[in-house]
Design a protein that fits this description.
Strand order of the largest sheet: 3-2-1-4-5-6-7-8
Order of helices and strands: EHEHHEEHEHEHEHEHHHHEHEHEEHEHE
Number of strands: 14
Helix content: 25-40%
Shape: globular
Largest sheet: 8 strands, mixed
Oligomer: single chain
Distance between the termini: 80 Å
Mean pLDDT: 95
CATH architecture of the largest domain: 3-Layer(aba) Sandwich
Bound molecules: nicotinamide-adenine-dinucleotide
Length: about 450
């Protein structure tokens, strides 16, 4: 239901709880619009310190610049105790998965408990909630009902989060039966200048929209990856298969790129959350579980293919990329990291380069990993080089020159960013996901 008749409030004091990828982007983009004052609340000491010093603790294109531009309209604090009554609170704390596969709600519980100090302040939750949790929000916030509570799930993609905030595909408002139009008008006010379809739905539907959207994206990727493996086995170029099916408008070609698997903090988690939510109600959730299994298998298949082509002893692999996707420094659920760890377990010396991941974080995540400060250096003495993250700069490396630095010129393109013909022309044996192996033509000396 559109909130057409309510008079929008003037400039607001907005508090964003949780300054991670979602909270920081939300808060900084809001402040940059120049109208509202934003207070970011962050409990992690390192992130807090860096933000208070004017630095940007995460890598996201355009975010550091936007933060610098809007610094005077942003206050960064370590606790809600330091915040005066705000007009609106956005909750953007993490909702990761625990070791048992159940949602870890500790951040949400602690943040909502802290918010009980303001029983009348408007609160909207941007964090992704597992099915069935939204209805508990008023109680978690210590309120009798959800009159001034809503959800507003975030759909940004890391790597283009600032752009996605400004140009969202849709804005979803989840409301309780009692949520007032006045509350929704306050939340809508934040998006006044943003053009996007708006959907007002029940809170339970809003949380499912978010979970299912991620699940469906993962479904496309895992299916395409399964088809890629099948194509490899049957001597087919998967790109031809995808071109052929993509011409059917019911199928299309968007988000249908084969690769060594998906990662990040959202897609893998959402599948587990969906499976667990269904299981609790007696549903088998075959599809959600299969998507995850295919994704793990895809990463292991890539590792097996590398191991099959390198010597058993004292082998060296160069790894291009560590983050779970390009334009982010995020290692959460990263397939590249999985590949690095599996190779290290097999006794391979792995030298990696990533343009954004800080070396100390990479080595902490994969002990024993060697870090190269330049992409070119991972080729040095390598028995194989694998592209694990689709950073665009990896597509333009001077391959002919780098061939001579390898011990064995084999290139595993886990992200499909190099034209096989170029790699072969540069003297590399090329292996791509869903592609047929291609080797340089060797001219025998007479
Ligand atoms: N990362 C994405 O691409 C993305 C996209 C859409 C939705 N989401 C969802 O948004 C939520 C946040 O994701 P994220 O990637 O920003 O997570 P994140 O881990 O990067 O950020 C969460 C931040 O909240 C802080 N925090 C925890 N408890 C706090 C408290 N009580 N007070 C103040 N700060 C607190 C943490 O220290 C952390 O910095 C999750 O529910 C996630 O599923 C994430």
């Amino acid at each position: 239901m559109p909130i057409g008749t309510f008079c929008y409030p003037p400039a607001m004091r907005i508090t964003v709880v949780g300054a991670g990828y979602v909270g920081l982007v939300t808060g900084v983009c809001l402040a940059r619009r120049g109208e509202h004052h934003v207070t970011l609340v962050e409990t992690a000491p390192n992130r807090l310190r860096e933000l208070q010093a004017g630095g940007m603790p995460i890598e996201e294109p355009g975010l550091a610049e936007a933060f610098a531009e809007s610094r005077e309209r942003i206050t960064v604090v370590g606790s809600l105790d330091q915040v005066e009554d705000p007009d609106l609170v956005f909750l953007a704390v993490g909702t990761p998965i625990s070791d048992t596969g159940e949602p870890d709600l500790s951040q949400l519980q602690s943040a909502t408990a802290d918010l009980r100090r303001w029983p009348d302040v408007d609160v909207s939750v941007r964090s992704t909630l597992p099915p069935g949790l939204s209805v508990r929000l008023p109680k978690l916030l210590g309120r009798a009902d959800g009159a001034r509570v809503s959800t507003n799930p975030e759909f940004l993609r890391q790597g283009s989060a600032v752009h996605d905030y400004e140009h969202p595909s849709r804005i979803i408002f989840g409301r309780f039966a009692e949520t007032t139009d006045a509350h929704l008008a306050v939340v809508e006010r934040v998006y006044a200048a943003i053009e996007a379809p708006r959907l007002h739905v029940d809170v339970a539907a809003a949380e499912l929209i978010k979970n299912v959207a991620n699940g469906f994206l993962a479904l496309k990727l895992s299916f395409v990856n399964e088809v890629a493996a099948l194509s490899e086995e049957y001597g087919v170029e998967v790109t031809e298969v995808l071109d052929g099916i993509g011409l059917d408008p019911r199928i299309g070609s968007v988000y249908m790129r084969p690769g060594l698997g998906f990662g990040g903090s959202c897609l893998p988690k959402e599948l587990q959350v969906l499976a667990a939510a269904g299981r609790r109600r007696g549903l088998s959730m075959h599809v959600a579980r299969a998507i995850s299994q295919v994704n793990v298998e895809q990463q292991d298949r890539f590792v097996r293919q590398i191991l099959a082509e390198i010597p058993r002893d004292e082998s060296r692999v160069g790894l291009l990329g560590l983050s779970f996707k390009a334009d982010t420094d995020d290692l959460r659920g990263s397939p590249a990291l999985h590949v690095a760890r599996r190779l290290l377990e097999e006794g391979v010396v792995v030298t990696a380069h990533d343009p954004a991941v800080r070396p100390d974080r990479a080595v902490a995540a994969a002990p024993g990993l060697q870090i190269a400060s330049r992409a070119e250096d991972v080729f040095e003495g390598a028995d194989a080089v694998a592209i694990a993250t689709e950073w665009p700069q990896f597509a333009t490396l001077p391959l002919p020159r780098l061939r001579d630095r390898t011990r064995q010129p084999i290139l595993f393109d886990g992200r499909g960013i190099i034209a096989a013909a170029d790699a072969v022309a540069a003297g590399f044996h090329y292996r791509g996901v869903g592609r047929q192996p291609r080797s340089p033509i060797v001219v025998e000396a007479r």
